[in-house]
Automatic annotation (TrEMBL):
Protein's UniProt name: Asparaginase
UniProt xrefs under CDD domains: Glycosylasparaginase
InterPro entries: Ntn_hydrolases_N, Peptidase_T2
Cellular component GO terms, alphabetical: cytoplasm
UniProt site positions, description: Cleavage: D175, T176
GO molecular function: hydrolase activity, acting on carbon-nitrogen (but not peptide) bonds, in linear amides
Superkingdom per UniProt: Bacteria
Residues reported in the UniProt entry to bind substrate: R204, L205, G206, D207, T227, G228, A229, G230
Record-annotated active site: T176
Length: 337
């Protein structure tokens, strides 16, 4: 892939998280050829949704406690402040495109569950089996070893609360995908897509479809999107906060620092890992992994680059303790032989 953007004066930029690796070349190619920010982001996220190596987004994503894969996604146009978000959607392989169509075709901003599925059906969105053999096997192993016999017998009409607290995400440190970019017209956009936590409570929405928490874009200032424990960024309104801090005059570096400081006020609930990705409207960016792991990285593409480059995320600890919450504390997934 060798983007050949003619207008070297334009400030193009793409930032995506580590899971965006397979999609960012497509986004870069499209952006370099003059595509709109939303079109380029949607195309890149669709690749990630199909990527069999990414087990936290789209087809092949981890299921919830009941063994069903529920997907969340969103898009935001920073020039109109229109958004499209869908949550807890089953059976559709490209939630980011359904979110995009919601933005284009409905007077609403957010659909979940049965309503999202109805809309997806009405627009002829692609359907497919989301639960792949590796995930089904891992879920079955968990079910057989963790669920009490009396609850197995009653399944799925069994209490789930205790199992939700004890569930361990099968693949710690892997995540949602988030993309941010600015196109040749300086339109800024954001997009997200995820299967959320493995073994989540049915109907659980993370931050990915919650505009203002998991993503926000405003072409006048910049954009932000988060990965990791959505329970944290929902509480701090992180993505909107970063953009608002830039509106208040802070640099993208300061704005992200301020959003990290907001997280220091979180008490109780889930305190775990979050990575904050942000760009401003001048082509600057910053990515910070809060309580991050040493191998946390993100992908950056600028017109001066032949191909997108992986960069280490800056790690900021907001707690001296290892995140205590099991779903993000340990990795137990091993590939099937
Ligand atoms: N950040 C993705 C989620 O919490 O589901």
């Amino acid at each position: 892939m060798a983007p050949s953007f003619a207008n070297k004066e334009a400030i193009l930029i793409i930032v995506c998280n580590n899971e965006g690796k397979s999609g960012i070349p497509v986004t870069a190619e499209m952006l370099s050829r003059g595509a709109s920010a939303l079109d380029a982001l949607e195309a890149g996220v669709r690749v990630v949704e199909d990527d069999p190596e990414v087990r936290t987004v789209g087809t092949g994503g981890w299921p919830n406690l009941l063994g069903d894969v529920e997907l969340d996604a969103s898009v935001m146009c920073g020039s109109t402040l229109r958004t499209g978000a869908i949550g807890a959607l089953k059976g559709y392989t490209h939630p980011v495109s359904i979110a995009r169509q919601l933005l284009e075709r409905l007077p609403h901003e957010f659909l979940v569950g049965d309503g999202a599925a109805r809309f997806a059906h009405e627009i002829g969105a692609e359907t497919g089996e989301l639960l792949r053999p590796h995930a089904k096997t891992a879920w079955q192993r968990w079910f057989d070893s963790e669920i009490k016999p009396e609850h197995q017998a009653a399944w799925p009409d069994a209490p789930l609360i205790e199992y939700c607290h004890n569930a361990v995400d099968p693949e710690i440190g892997k995540d949602t995908t988030v993309f941010l970019c600015m196109d040749q017209h300086r339109h800024i956009a954001s997009a997200t897509s995820t299967s959320g936590w493995g073994w989540k409570y049915p109907g659980r929405l993370g931050d990915s479809p919650v505009i203002g928490a998991g993503s926000y874009a405003d072409s006048r200032y910049g954009a932000c999107a988060c990965t990791g424990a959505g329970e944290m960024t929902i509480r701090t309104g992180t993505a909107r906060a970063v953009v608002l801090y830039m509106k208040m005059g802070m640099s993208v570096e300061r704005a992200v620092d301020e959003a990290v400081n907001d997280m220091r006020a979180l008490k109780g609930g889930l305190i775990s890992r979050v990575t904050i990705h942000a760009i401003d409207n001048r082509g600057n960016h910053r990515t910070v992994a809060v309580n991050g792991l040493p191998d946390n990285h993100y992908w950056l593409w600028l017109p001066s680059m032949k191909a997108p480059e992986a960069r280490p995320a800056e790690i900021i600890q907001i707690s001296d303790e290892e995140p205590q919450n099991k779903p993000f504390a340990m990795a137990v997934y091993t590939k099937e032989p």
